[in-house]
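Researcher: Sequence of F-box domain-containing protein follows. Predict its structure.
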Amino acid sequence: MSAWLSLLYRVFATLLTLVTSLPSKFLARLAHLHLTLAAAPSASQGDSHSGDRHPTAAPQNNDDDDHETEFNKKTNMSRDVVENGATSEKPASTACTNLQPQSQPARDNGDHGVSYESSSASHQHQIDRFSQLPDKLLLLIFEMVHSEARHDLCSVSLANKKLHTLADKILYKALLFDSPEQHLTFSESLDRRPRRGSMIQDVVLAYPTSELSHLILDAPLDRSHYDPDRIDGLSRSLSTMSYLRTLDIAVPVKLLPGIGALFNGPFDLAELRECSLYFQAPDDAYWDLQETIHIFTHPELERLTLKRARLDERGFDSLERPHSTGLKVLSLVECDINDDALADIMEFPAGLREFHMCHTADPQPELEESSDEINEFVMALKPCAETLETIIIDHPTLGGRKVLRMRDFVAIKTLKMNFDTQLFGKTGRKPRLHSVGFPPELETLEFFGECGNDETVTELFATALENSSYMARNLKTLIMAEGAKGLPQQIVDACKGKKFQLLTKRLDEDDDDDNVNDDDDN
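Model: Prediction complete. Tokens:
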């Protein structure tokens, strides 16, 4: 008996190896054809002939109807319509509606009925044989079918309980909600079937301008341990997704307190690795980052993007401070952040590698908390000086009264900013006491805006480039924006004969590789 089991295992292992070596498109089409043939009888078994089902077929459970909605990345919910916070069942409008059991026309009691029963039994036998494939192989096939025809995967999930369970892992892996009604409907469905929460890995909430006044957001969820007075139903549904890895939120600011409570308490989202937060406020105002300040204490979060957030000088105003976090990339998009508060937060990451900060040339509303000096923000990053590899500050309104001293940033390889005056500081009445301190391992230096408008700064920059062999010995690429007057000749001459390459781009061109030109023969 053990010999037969060993042989069967080798056959399955060989089959898995052969399948994974086939081209993906060919395998997807082959699996698509197989699943279409196998799923055919499942649609015919829902009619008056249900008594003729094959005895080995598992009955459909209560989860089957939810596959009509196809919760997946870039897929909309359309089965339920939310009215005043409650769902009303209506016919589905998605492609999956074509896959529901259709009533069969009446058949004669003669040979036609016998032929139909024989065909149905044959198809059911195919389903049973297909279900016996290893779960790993079935998941691989389902992944490919899902990429080609999601509605067919919904259909085959109705064949039996095993295929239904495996298809769930693919269909519910990534979700996109582009309306609050979709999210609320799914929250109620998830409360009835909480096991699906653990299957979800990626969630996008994309309805920042939606009106929420007609929805009842504080409807209780029986299985939630959160206090209904502190967190709404939509946020509680997120707390059930215990294996969530990516969370992208762009919703009205009314949902900020509830979502903030997810991060200000015990971490149900322990597996979260990437998070993006944006809360649309009236008049496009900044939203208060204090509501979600504990997102910075998440132990495993690696990438965090904040859009149009405001943080005052209080910073992380809590007695419970983390020892270290896993944050690697922090992006601040059009934010109003106090530099002292930023310095406070930068104490937490054990290995921050990238810092991105950008804003428009005319911030609206006006910045209240942010400093107007780029030097203040660079110094706020000093707690991460030993690990930072990339600093990108695209903030045209930031001035530079002081020269940047960045010799302590020993791991920096890429530095990007708007103007040379932000790096060297504008010329003032007082004499300069310090020269620029390039990061010792700097490889790429880029300026987004026009340079050369300050003659003293231009001379200092040219001198630094001439002495780059010891001031920036690892510099490989210098990228500068070329205005109407072109690059200052002093800069061009200083770059000749050096080990690094000078690349230029015009300000009226897009920032892509096709618009960057080699400006000299280094």
